[in-house]
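step=encode ok
step=design start
structure_in=
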């Protein structure tokens, strides 16, 4: 079960890679402003 779940997560990450990168950039910017 764990192996199958990991494979599914990898596929989701690939599909939402652009959105994930955008979210990470926003988080980095917010952290830079805060600190």
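sequence_out=
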């Amino acid at each position: 079960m764990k192996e199958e779940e990991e494979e599914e997560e990898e596929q989701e990450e690939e599909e939402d890679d652009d959105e994930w990168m955008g979210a990470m950039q926003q988080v980095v910017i917010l952290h830079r402003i805060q600190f």
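step=design ok
step=annotate ok -> The chain has one domain: 2-34.
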